[in-house]
Design goal:
single chain, about 60 residues, mainly beta, three-stranded antiparallel sheet, two-stranded antiparallel sheet, 1 helix, about 15% helix, globular, binds zinc ion
Amino acid sequence: MERLVFTCPQTGRDIDVGIRTELQTLLRIHANKVIVDLCPCCARRHEWLVRDAQLDRAA
Ligand SMILES: [Zn+2]
């Protein structure tokens, strides 16, 4: 399983949005899906495309 990690456009910090998935499956089906989440760094809502996620292997 892999974690979806996005970059906060306000602070430039990496945000773990708490989604754990098989990334290849997610990219195949939902590459253009928009994820909206409240950012823990700046407390604003951001929209990210799944395909813009950085990969981070979960333990
Ligand atoms: Zn943010």
